[in-house]
Amino acid sequence: MNREIENYWLKYANEHNLNLQVPDYWMFGDGSKKMGDELADLVLAGKKTGTCAAKVVYDLENEAMPVVGQYDIVLNGDEFPVAIIKYTAIEEVPMNGSIGSLCFIRRRGRLDL
What we know:
113 residues; alpha+beta; 3 strands
C-alpha cells in the first residue's frame, strides 16, 4: 500500500469516527489505465452506483464476500485513491437471473440501459 492510499483513508476515517485500519482498495475494470479512469469517473459522477462479481472468483481465491457496511477505496487508472464506497446492499443472484437493474447501475457510461 502506498502512503497516498493510507492518508486518503485516515483523513476520511478521522472525519467520520471510523476504524483507522485501511480497507481494501482496488480499481474497477480490466486493470488498464483507460478503463480504471473511465469507471472511476462514473463513480465520482454518481452514474456508477453498483457492481458485480462472480461468486466463484471469491471461492477460488479464498476471499470473503463484501458485507453491508463495509468500506472500500476506489482507485483510478493511475492507482490513485479517488473515492470511498460503502456497501449498502449485497445480493447473490444467478447469472441468468433478472439483471436489468444491475445493468443500469453498472452501465459503464451507457446511459441508454
